[in-house]
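Predict both folds.
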Amino acid sequence: MPAEGSPAVHNGKTHCMGIVIIVLVLVVIVAVVAMAVTRKRNRDMDNRRIEADSQRQLADVAAVDAERLKAEADEQAAHARAEALAAQQQQLSAQEAQDKVDDLDARADEIDPDQGSDAAPDA
């Protein structure tokens, strides 16, 4: 067995210390890589959250526009229905007026002594 101060014992301790240093360096590298991966994952998630928020805002704006367009269409349809009813009322009023004219003409023909088959020629 070599003595404690001999070069063979000293090389064994140095070799052991080299392995410990390599292991520690590897542990530090793994920890740094793990931290970098975690940071990247967190950054990616934050970017996705920002993108999702942006999409929600666009959807909200589109929903407001769609609601406004629907309200305008409903208003236009109601206006068209009102105009159709007004036109129908005008047609009924015009028909009623024409019926009254026809009745007055018929009454005038009944009263007029010169109209009809019963009229006698003046001799």
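Second protein follows, with its predicted structure tokens after the sequence.
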Amino acid sequence: MDKLIGTLEECRAEWKKLIPGTAQLSPTYRRLSADIKGQLPLVIDVAAQVRDDLASRLRAVRWGGPGFPFDLHLELLYELKSATLSLKDAGIILGTAGAFEALVDAMPSALRDVVARPLAEHRFADAVRAAAIHVLDQQLPRKTGVPRGKSAAEDVSHAFSREPAKAAGQRRLRRPGFEPGSADWNSAQEGAANLGMAAAKLRNLVMHGRELSEADALEQLAVFSLLARWIEEAAVEDFRP
């Protein structure tokens, strides 16, 4: 929900830059508008569990396109956010839709962008496939500068190995905040390597056409989100002759 509110704020700011009386929309405005439409179904799912009237009002308003009423949309979203926080404070669980919304909000932005649309369309296995490809096939090689190998499990295991790089062209990822060589550092490195290898096995299953329930997708996306965060935050260690 915070993501959608932020996108709407950006979209409104972009709209104000346009020449009054023209229908010419900038590429940025069009991109933000498309992003809003992609995020909206997930937010409406949450609204339906919080307050039926808010869900109905969100469905009724026109979203996207030139000149839509930003203030009305933002008012509805802030009202929904307030109602959602009140329910959370009261200890009421919002179910899978609320968990998905919270998880997507917490994801690294690049991962959020690739899973938002399939989740909004309730294509849960597609969302996990997109996350797996992004994290293991794209983010990890881009971070290490080492081309993807034959096995994603081996790639991520080598990246987070406790051993230093043994040859030119090899690099290691080091979790920040731990004293190198300490017990906690060893645990952090081994934990990241093991999580990455588990994520690679999940990737294999979903890439082979395995379908997923909402609950399965939620749990697996949480794995890829955590791995993406650890890769993003890691320092790169080069080979030292």
